[in-house]
Design a protein that fits this description.
The chain is of the alpha+beta class. It has twelve helices and 22 strands. The protein has helices spanning about 20-25, 40-55, 80-85, 105-115, 190-215, 230-240, 250-255, 260-270, 310-315, 320-330, 345-350, 350-355, and strands at about 5-10, 15, 30-35, 60-70, 95-100, 125-130, 145-155, 160-170, 175, 185, 220-225, 280-285, 290-295, 315-320, 355-360, 365-370, 385, 390-400, 410-415, 420-425, 440-450, 455-465.
Length: about 475
Amino acid sequence: MVGLVSVGAYVPRYRLTGALLREAWGGAGDGERALANYDEDSLTMACEAALAALTGRDVSRVGACFLASTSAPYAEKSTATLLASVCDLAPDAITADLGGSLRCGTTALRLALDSVRAGSVAEALVAAADVRTVPPGTELEGLLGDGAAAALVGADGVVASFEGAHTVSREFTDVWRNQGGRYLNVLPDMPFVKAHGLDRHLPEAIDGLLAKTGRKKSDITRLVLGAPDARLHAALVRQLGFAAAVPKEPLIAKVGNTGSAAGLLGLAEALENARRQDQILVVSYGDGAEALLFQVTDAITGSRPAWPLRAQLARGQPLAHYGKFLRFRRHVETEVIRAFTSVPAMVREERQNFRLYGQKCTDCGAVSYPRRHLCWQCSSSRLAEHKLSRRGRVFTFTRDFLVPTPDPPTVVVSSDLEGGGRFFAQLTDADPATVTVDMPVELTFRRIHEGEDLVNYFWKFRPAP
């Protein structure tokens, strides 16, 4: 039986509210959508979701890593390979980046399922994430949310078995972004998009799947449906005949349209509340449509997410003012740190900087990070490689008001990690006034600077969930 072994979800801390947009631009905006912090992008959010899905798992079993995004940080450079490094996957793991269409998230999931079913790999990791940028003051500004989700696919300990899929590929231009373009383009004629795109492609994919699997619409317990916005989502649910299979307040109404991540993010939410034998239908839309069916197994009773999605939604922090959003998205000129970057050093220190390996003295047991030639405690040269914990407590901290940042001040902390080692890093996703000694923190992978035209990533601390 092939299917989902575990899932992970990530919704950023900040919320862009309709009230804030109304204050800035007027109109009648309401609701809210998830907003990535200034140091987040599709890769960092994918790392969050993937690490959550891999919590407590044997990563040596993972033989493939697929990353889906229409907003990857690089046009030519694999982000899936960096994701595999952060997740400490083996060098022989297959890595692939998917994009171009909003259904790339479910397509990546299908590739992972097919890879395991074919016996190519024992387990496969798939992640989807998007941070799509639109011009300030447009309607899309309040509709598109940021987020990520990941799934570990395998044949042992399956919590939701894969029952089948059906894909419809149709040439249809309603959402696009040109090569080198920063902002998303959307066809303004929504009645045409609905009549000739959504109303045709979604039923075609769903009906094809139901015919393949021998199911009826009444068999579906939960529908996860990709849609441009919450209003159209509600209309499509009723029109497709699945009103009873969607919660009163669907995820898109809480976080916005999360692009390629919407399908996997909705699937993660559905599994958090699933019962045995539930039938979960996941449908994505973009240049056609794709439908996947999962059936929840008895193993769901022992499955607990590392960081539940409901807890992430509850921690949402409304952005205080619109100017901060403009700086986060660089709609206005901001001072950017372009520090010296050494690619040879990045290659040499890959295990230390991305995979979080330090050293442990075989004589006294002291843990060192970064790596060194002699033990800091007993001066022994017998140092063994040691995987660091991502959790710890603040030992000391400082607030720096001089470092350029869209969200001053920069808080820097030194924290003692669980299992040994002291780690020095910036603190993010926190109110600087609330930082205290002994505060529980957790390492999170973020953007640091952009020296040599490269996006430089490293670990920061954030308050532990």
